[in-house]
User: Which sequence fits this backbone?
């Protein structure tokens, strides 16, 4: 899993039939401190995340499992909205 912040939405008029009905968001990977950590990418949304929210992303084959369909093409899937991060000392 990795952390990201939702920075936008993605609209697709043409896509694979298996992606019909799926919502796509543009996310920016971030560190636990909220600093940018890599290039933005498109992720499928399972939790109705909104712009500016901190989310948890599952990537690669595990991302498709969130939909119960391992044949669904997904490089990244949003599986949680993060309310708070606490450091353990």
Assistant:
């Amino acid at each position: 899993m990795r952390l990201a912040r939702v920075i936008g939405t993605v609209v697709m008029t043409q896509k694979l039939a298996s992606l019909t009905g799926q919502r796509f968001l543009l996310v920016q990977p971030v560190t636990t401190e909220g600093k940018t950590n890599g290039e933005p990418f498109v992720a499928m949304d399972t939790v109705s995340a909104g712009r500016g929210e901190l989310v948890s992303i599952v990537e690669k084959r595990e991302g498709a499992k969130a939909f119960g369909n391992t044949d669904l093409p997904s490089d990244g899937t949003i599986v949680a909205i993060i309310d708070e991060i606490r450091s353990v000392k």
The two ends are 22 Å apart (CA to CA). The mean pLDDT is 86.
